Amino acid sequence: MLPQNRSEGEAALDLGTSLIDKGRFHDAIEPLLRAAAISGTAAQRRATATALLRLGFGLGDRQNYAEALRVHARAAAIFAELGDAEQELQCRTLIGICEWQLKAYESAIQIFESNAENALGAGRTAMRAVALLSISCILVDHLRQYRRADPYATEAARLFRSTGDHEQAAHALRHLDEARHEGNP
Length: 185
Prior knowledge:
Layout: H1 3-21, H2 25-37, H3 42-61, H4 65-82, H5 85-101, H6 105-121, H7 125-142, H8 146-163, H9 166-182
């Protein structure tokens, strides 16, 4: 690694972070993506991925889901390279939410299904429940595929109850109740 590249990466990271702090999220995209592209230490790459995650939240809050998806995807890739499965899973959840907001429902469902499997393998019960509930919500609220939603809602409610999150279990059960009463059109 050349010291010049490290300096360029640090400068791009500093600029992007400063722009985020000022609420200039769109302006922060390119410096942070540039920082992500320049090789650096693991600590610098983690700082860049974390800044990209923050940027994605800001873009999502401003309903710029296409750009939020782009930066969350880059953050997920960096976290994967670093072997940080939990942060990668968080980014992939945010990617699913962006796809959902962009009305790419089947793509969002695929992402959440993958997240549910990854969360199961990692022993992350609450994260699995969130992924399954997200699938149920998409199927019931947007695609009106009630029978298809039934097993996702049932398992999400069971998992939420097992973690003691009765509010989310009730939410999952409301979807399940709607699914059972509406039937599959």
